[in-house]
Amino acid sequence: MKAIWAEDNQGWMGYQGKLPWHVPEDLRFFKEKTSGNIVIMGRKTWEGIGHPLPNRVNIILSRTEKEIPGCLTFSSIKEVLSYLQDKKEVEVYVIGGKEIFEQFFPYCHTIYRTIIHHSYPGDVQAPHIDNKQWERVEVKEEKSQTKPYPQITFETWQRKRSE
């Protein structure tokens, strides 16, 4: 299982139920990674997106929603993990929000973190990556072609093996 998110240089990843920015390079990276795979999100992230992400199995974890057209809904992590048992042929991406990241972090072995080097308004902080548990294995820098033309860092982290 993998986690994927973007944050600004203050660690914000959300504002009023949406992404605080529109950075095509980040959206392209997200699409490249998650297309053809399974994405797991919480109800609030689902509401912010507003529709199933195309070419993906959309799993919504919600205590209140029972049926969402074009998505699979589950009310517990246990149900999600049970569903995923026989889905070894595709990758599984946890895409948010904050509570969902916290709940699924123990099951993740890879993190894709995009840092957008600009300050945006925010009300949801990105997850903390503990350097004792995670090792950054890849870094790629890119300059956005969209105003305000922020620098973008794409990072890949791997969970450290227990010794």
UniProtKB/TrEMBL annotation:
Which is one GO molecular function term here?
Answer: NADP binding
E.C. code? 1.5.1.3
Record's Pfam families?
Answer: DHFR_1
Provide one Gene Ontology biological process annotation: tetrahydrofolate biosynthetic process
Q: What does this protein do?
A: Key enzyme in folate metabolism. Catalyzes an essential reaction for de novo glycine and purine synthesis, and for DNA precursor synthesis.
Q: Which family does it belong to?
A: Belongs to the dihydrofolate reductase family.
Which Gene Ontology terms of cellular component type are present? Answer: cytosol
Q: Where is the DHFR domain?
A: 1-159
Q: Which domain of life is it from?
A: Bacteria
Its recorded reaction(s) are: (6S)-5,6,7,8-tetrahydrofolate + NADP(+) = 7,8-dihydrofolate + NADPH + H(+)
Which pathway?
A: Cofactor biosynthesis; tetrahydrofolate biosynthesis; 5,6,7,8-tetrahydrofolate from 7,8-dihydrofolate: step 1/1
| Class of the enzyme per the UniProt entry, highest EC level | oxidoreductase
Q: Which keywords does this Swiss-Prot/TrEMBL entry list?
A: NADP, One-carbon metabolism, Oxidoreductase
> Cross-referenced InterPro entries, in alphabetical order?
DHFR, DHFR-like_dom_sf, DHFR_dom
Q: Which SUPFAM superfamilies match?
A: Dihydrofolate reductase-like
This chain belongs to which protein, by name? Dihydrofolate reductase
